[in-house]
Amino acid sequence: MPAWQYNHPPPNPASVMGVADPRRLTRFLIESEQRVVAHCQVVLSRGDIDPRERDRLVSVLREATMRLQRLSAAAA
Fold this sequence. Notes:
By secondary structure, the chain is mainly α. It has one domain. It has 3 helices and no strands. It has helices spanning 13-16, 22-45, 51-75. 7% of the residues are buried.
């Protein structure tokens, strides 16, 4: 498995939240994106990544950062 792949399935929001509360869902999504960003940063900090994997990871990090910004703006 390439280093950039996160090998844990994301939690199901329905199992985490009993009631469909939009604010709780937004917080859950923000926390999920924060975990993606943190994971990408940790893996990128290593120097033993294949250049193609590094490019893919940088792309994932960029997309997650943009989603996190949109979610944070929506939550404000």
